[in-house]
Every structure is written in structure tokens, then in C-alpha cells.
Design goal:
This protein is α/β, with parallel strands linked by helices. It is built from 14 helices and twelve strands. It has helices at about 5-15, 20-25, 30-45, 60-85, 90-95, 105-110, 110-120, 135-145, 160-165, 195-200, 210-220, 235-245, 255-260, 290-309; strands at about 50, 55, 95-100, 125-130, 150-155, 170-175, 180-185, 205, 230, 250, 265-270, 275-280. It comes from Desulfitobacterium hafniense (strain Y51).
Length: about 300
């Protein structure tokens, strides 16, 4: 059983509401409900009685919440002891740990070379990398406030209230335009730019490693039925499908820095949201020296890409 699940059930008990508890915990209602159900399965008992929109603890739920509160106090005491012990192995190891919560897009473009460069200078650096969607990154950092989030997404989907409500800071470090990818023989290949309305008649290939491709395809819906010919997480298959002329695909100028395509042409799409990259961190949690240096080097690396792009 996870320690955060104990916290979840105590907050639900205090608020008497899944929605209010989720708001206080900075997680989704669905995620909170799933966590409570997982606890119930592990313990083999019902913790909550649900009647319409109202919930209250069962008798055994009340007893478990009381014990959960005691365990949470003990857990806080243990972590306080650990924090005051500065010469143990685990403290030394954690000071070199860099936990990254990143979108799939960035783990496949920016991070491989960045981590290689950083590790050459800091061979003892300990990276923990988890791929998440943007909303999941926000939720995870609320649980692991020492983690660093690397965020990528469309500007119109970026809700700064999500960050401020969770006491997080979002700092963008790159903004670029959306591109369409076509084969060299495409009638669009010589265009300087294209309108979304012109793309609706073409079959689409979506590189489905996050939400961006699907969100971009939604931009075409007002102009007719969107024909998705391929949806794949295989980058080679995606590229070859476009190069063969079977479909058009989406990209952006940041991705094109890492993709050296000789068989396709990229063209800016007019009147579409910008693609934004940035990092997310907890306002009230100081970063260790290793984390700070990683972010500094990452921003320097991205600035070099900006000059080249």
C-alpha cells in the first residue's frame, strides 16, 4: 500500500467529498477514485458508502482512517530524521539524483543527447525518467516535489491555472511553429505555407506518442471529415508512410532539428497554435546542485538549437 493512498483517504474523510479532496490534493477525481478503490481491494473491505453525490466512511473505514493518520505522523517523523542525517549513503545518492517527468516527445528528441552530454561531465549522476502526459506531469510533481517536469504541448492547451493551483511554476524555454510533412512529389511541396482548410482532403499519418498529433488533427475537423490513414508510435513507419506519399504528417521546427529528413518537405501551417516546450517545478522545494546544473545546461543546449533552427 502506498503512503500517498493513506493521505488520500484521510483527506476524503476530512472533506466528505471526492471532488473537494481531489482539488486539495491536486489530482484528478478519477485518479483519486481509482486510488481509493485500489485500497479497498488490497484491504478487502469497503471504506466508503456512496449515495448519489454524497459519501461517508463505513465503520471499518473510520477505524482505518484513524490508523492512517497515526501512520502519516510516523512517516513524517521518519522523513524528518532522514533529512537531518547528512552523512549517510542514501543522502549522498539522492543529492546526485535527477528525477525527470517528461512528455514522450521530449524523451525522444531532447533528452538522449542532453543526458549523454551531462553524464560525461557528471558520471555519478543518477537519472530517473518517467514518460507522462502533461496533466500527469502536474499530478506527479505534486506527489514528488523534488521532481522536474519537462513539458511540451500546444499553446492553446496550456492552462497556467493548472500550475498556479498546484503551487508549481512553468517556465517556457522554446516556442516554435507547427509544420506539415509531405513527400517531395506532393502538390503542396513547393508552398511556403498552407492553411488548415487545405489539409482536410489529405490522408493523415499521426505519430501517436502523446496528445499533440491528435490535437492537431482536431484543427482540421471544421473543414471536413479527417481521414486518419495511420496512427503509430513507430517513428520509422511514420516517416516511411509520409515519404511514400501515402499520407501527410505533422511536425514542428524543434523536432526537425533532430530529424534529418531527405525524402520529405516541411511547410508551416498558418493560424495554428504554437508548440511550447518548458520545465515545471515546485515553487517551495529548493533544487539540489545537480538539478540546478542540469537545468542550466538544458537551457543552454536549447538556446543552441534555437540559433540553428
Amino acid at each position: 500500500m502506498r503512503i500517498d493512498h493513506l493521505k488520500y483517504i484521510t483527506v476524503v474523510a476530512e472533506t466528505g467529498s471526492i471532488s473537494h479532496a481531489a482539488e486539495r490534493l491536486y489530482i484528478t477525481q478519477q485518479g483519486l477514485s481509482q486510488a481509493i478503490r485500489q485500497m479497498e481491494r488490497e484491504l478487502g473491505v469497503s471504506l466508503l458508502n456512496r449515495t448519489g453525490n454524497k459519501i461517508h466512511l463505513t465503520q471499518v473505514g473510520k477505524r482505518i482512517v484513524e490508523k492512517a493518520k497515526e501512520l502519516l505522523v510516523t512517516y513524517d517523523e521518519l522523513t524528518d530524521i532522514a533529512k537531518t542525517t547528512g552523512d549517510n549513503f542514501f543522502h549522498t545518492k539522492s543529492s546526485k539524483r535527477i528525477t525527470l517527468l517528461t512528455t514522450p516527445f521530449l524523451s525522444g528528441t531532447l533528452l538522449p543527447d542532453m543526458i549523454c552530454r551531462f553524464s560525461q561531465k557528471h558520471p555519478n549522476a543518477n537519472f530517473v525518467i518517467n514518460e507522462k502526459l502533461p496533466q500527469e506531469i502536474i499530478e506527479e510533481i505534486c506527489e514528488d516535489r523534488n521532481a522536474i517536469g519537462l513539458f511540451s504541448g500546444l499553446s492553446d492547451r496550456l492552462n497556467h491555472k493548472d500550475f498556479s493551483n498546484a503551487n508549481l511554476t512553468f517556465q517556457p524555454f522554446f516556442e516554435c511553429e507547427q509544420l506539415i510533412c509531405v513527400t517531395k512529389s506532393s502538390p503542396l511541396a513547393n508552398r511556403k505555407s498552407v492553411k488548415p482548410s487545405e489539409l482536410a482532403k489529405y490522408p493523415l499519418a499521426l505519430y501517436d506518442v502523446g496528445q499533440n498529433a491528435s490535437q492537431l488533427s482536431e484543427l482540421l475537423k471544421p473543414f471536413g471529415e479527417v481521414k486518419v490513414m495511420l496512427r503509430t508510435g513507430n517513428s520509422k513507419l511514420y516517416r516511411e508512410t509520409i515519404a511514400s506519399g501515402l499520407a501527410i504528417g505533422f511536425s514542428n521546427s524543434f523536432a526537425e532539428y533532430f530529424e534529418k529528413r531527405n525524402s520529405v518537405v516541411t511547410i508551416p501551417i498558418e493560424n495554428t497554435p504554437k508548440f511550447i516546450l518548458g520545465w515545471v517545478y515546485c515553487k517551495d522545494t529548493p533544487r539540489n546542485e545537480m538539478q540546478s546544473e542540469f537545468i542550466d545546461q538544458l537551457i543552454q543546449y536549447v538556446n543552441r538549437i534555437r540559433v540553428s533552427a
